[in-house]
Amino acid sequence: MKRMEFRMIDPLTRIDIENSIGEFVRDKRWFGSKGRGIKHAEVEYFSAFAEHFFLCICRFFYEDGSSERYFVPFSLRDSGSSFITARFNNNAKKLYDATDDQEFVFAFASLIMNPETFQSGSKELKAERTSFSQNEEFPDGDVRKITAEQSNTSIVIGNRHILKIYRKIIGADNPDYKVPVLLWQEAGFMQTPMPVGKAELYLKDRLLIATIFRYLQGSTDGWSRFTLHLMTILKSDASMSDLLLLDDASLLGSLTGGMHSALKRITPGSDLSFDAYSKEIMLPGIQANLEEVKHAYSISRNLPEHVQRKITNLLDSGPKYLERFNAIARKSRNQSLMVVHGDYHLGQVLYQDRSYYVIDFEGEPMRNSSGSFILSLPYKDIAGMIRSFDYALAYSLKSTNRNVSEKFRTGWLNAMMRQFLESYLEKSGIAVDMDLLDLFLAEKAIYELKYELNNRPDWVDIPLTFLERL
User: Fold this and answer.
1) In angstroms, what CA-CA distances link 397 with 87, 235, 307, 416, 466?
2) 436/381 same-domain check
3) Do 146 and 290 sit in the same domain of this protein?
4) Do 183 and 205 reside in the same domain of the chain?
5) What is the C-alpha to C-alpha distance for residues 290 and 284, in angstroms, rounded to an integer?
6) Total number of domains constituting the chain
7) Are 34 and 50 in the same domain?
8) Is the pTM of this model over 0.70?
9) What are the distances in angstroms from CA 182 to CA 20, 80, 92, 199, 253?
């Protein structure tokens, strides 16, 4: 691999960073490969940005032969407890995570909001504003990091804007920024926060490293809204029917239908049919996940006996499931793929003033990130939201130590799903094929089962019970 040109104060700095950065990133929320062994790291780019700050692109090589690039800006100012030490002109200096430094945050925001006037130490760094955001003024006020588990570092400025520092680098056409710009610019869909501008590094290829969006002040994510409501009802003497959130299901169905109608106007740059997609990607993925479920189950410990029986029955029925999935896919092979959200659930929507807004178009955290659009059928997003409804109820029941009958849980989810789909159809005009929806629901639930077996065995019954119903 040919190395980039380095503009470092000391040639030993790169070596020190490469030796230390693996441990530095391992416990960070945004580092998505915590379970993979890092063989070694290579700094591809390192340059000064304003005073006291450095921009760093590092490639991590893993023991399985793969690699990923991450953006790790550093600060020479004491801005936290997490740091690495590197030599600059034979002097040991502590390098801190720059996103903990308010001065860095304002400097990066200034770069994006005023790209023509900001002076940076890096000639490769360029920024631009969106054409429809020209009335947005420079962000000011308090700065706070969003502490939820996510793949980026998101920082709220003045309760008006949110600066997103992209950590895992997937190129210039990151759908998290590209899709909202197209939705605002070409489709007039504004139920996603306004994209204000971006910053990119121009190296061998263009790398999106930061964006600014409007911040929805006072908003609540859908997961928090649902679970707070459900747990409040479960702890009170209210009627069990009060657990239904039909108005929210209707709003979310309308949001999703509007989003898909708008996304249909975006040209994906690919003519991949569902026939090819199902044969080459979807069905092999389901089969691979079933194999991983089998492996995870074989080494699992202390699962309740009734859960073991259910998993055994599922694995024994695997060939029958796959035969049914193939039949559904063949019946729908002529459908065309479209741009979709790709990781659609209650945590990816915000509620504000009796409306929902969709955020984060990057797709699933562990997807093979090419930087291109995420292509599938709209059922991928619909299934993701329906499964999120099911998880919200199950989580709330577990958190409050309440039990309800399986008949009630099924009835609750069916009522929510029915309301969601009615509003979806009314908004989008896209008729939902229930067999196809079952296929995408099964795909999602099998993935969830694999995840829970590997990470949260106490939650295995949530996707497992749903798969039994299917």
Assistant:
1) 53, 10, 18, 17, 15
2) yes
3) no
4) yes
5) 10
6) 2
7) yes
8) yes
9) 40, 38, 46, 17, 21
